[in-house]
Design goal:
single chain, 7-stranded mixed beta sheet, 5 helices, 7 strands
């Protein structure tokens, strides 16, 4: 499968909005926010997200010029980064797209001097967890209710950037 991954710029805000709404409709149990919340975001909010800042950026994967997947990475304190909003269109899952997005997120984090990258995953999302573990992420033991559906729990996974994670 041919696809390309790139960081967004402000002019990509419509792409980001469309893909994010699609992700929330497809997999509501995977995200901390809801489709209704995302629909309320105004154009400037989407522009800001697409623009990112020195401490965050969003990556989208494209196939034949069409957006098929996304993730964002946020640089945090203590040389840490967090990948959020990871989603791949159902037609493109299990084809290496998510791994490519996570590698782009890690490369961005390395440039920002992060040493660890973290991700939260709903405990029932076994395929996502298997993907992250195949990339060297390991459970940290941290758990919390999913903010968008407190009946679900999510667990934190983390990986040392450039090496296998050792708890």
């Amino acid at each position: 499968m041919d696809y390309a991954v790139r960081a967004l710029v402000e002019e990509d805000w419509c792409l980001l909005r469309g893909l994010r709404l699609q992700a929330l409709a497809d997999s509501p149990q995977a995200f901390a926010s809801t489709l209704d919340d995302a629909r309320k975001i105004r154009q400037e909010g989407w522009r800001e997200r697409a623009r990112g800042a020195g401490l965050s950026t969003t990556f989208i994967a494209f196939s034949d010029g069409h957006p098929i997947a996304l993730t964002a990475v946020l640089i945090e304190e203590n040389h840490s980064a967090q990948a959020v909003s990871v989603w791949v269109h159902p037609d493109y899952r299990r084809q290496g797209v998510a791994a490519a997005l996570m590698k782009a997120a890690a490369a961005f984090a390395i440039e920002a001097d992060a040493r660890v990258i973290r991700v939260w995953v709903t405990e029932t999302n076994l395929s996502a967890r298997a993907l992250y573990e195949s990339l060297g992420y390991r459970a940290t033991g941290a758990r919390q209710p999913l903010p968008s559906d407190r009946s679900l729990d999510e667990c934190e996974l983390a990986a040392r950037i450039g090496s296998r994670f050792d708890p």
